[in-house]
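User: tokens in, sequence out, please.
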């Protein structure tokens, strides 16, 4: 039997390889509500830098979960959306959001602020 190309301790590692980090899950979560342009991301995540946003979007595009569409107009227009493969992450991202809400309430009570509170399905 040939040696495996990659070895994981658990499949969770494979998931985190694609969506892990501070910003990727947030970017993907916002995309579950529809296409976004660069400026929309910057408004939704005011502390992310343009450099980091661009890097994260490129990596998500390389992993096949985000599609970048460039329109040939002036000024340039670029939209980002989930691919079919990316949409397979919707349930886990929304569950992460719900867990996060519970965690915030448990740890901080009403002493924490969540900037964006889109409605996730129950």
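Assistant: Sequence out:
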């Amino acid at each position: 039997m040939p040696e495996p190309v990659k070895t994981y301790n658990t499949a969770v590692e494979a998931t985190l390889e694609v969506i892990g980090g501070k910003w990727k899950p947030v970017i993907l979560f916002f995309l579950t509500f529809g296409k976004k342009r660069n400026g929309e991301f910057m408004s939704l995540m005011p502390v992310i830098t343009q450099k980091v946003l661009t890097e994260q979007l490129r990596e998500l595009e390389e992993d096949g979960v985000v599609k970048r569409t460039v329109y040939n107009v002036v000024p340039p227009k670029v939209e980002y959306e989930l691919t079919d493969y990316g949409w397979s992450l919707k349930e886990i991202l929304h569950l992460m959001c719900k867990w996060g809400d519970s965690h915030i309430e448990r740890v901080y009570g009403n002493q924490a602020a969540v900037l964006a509170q889109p409605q996730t399905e129950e």
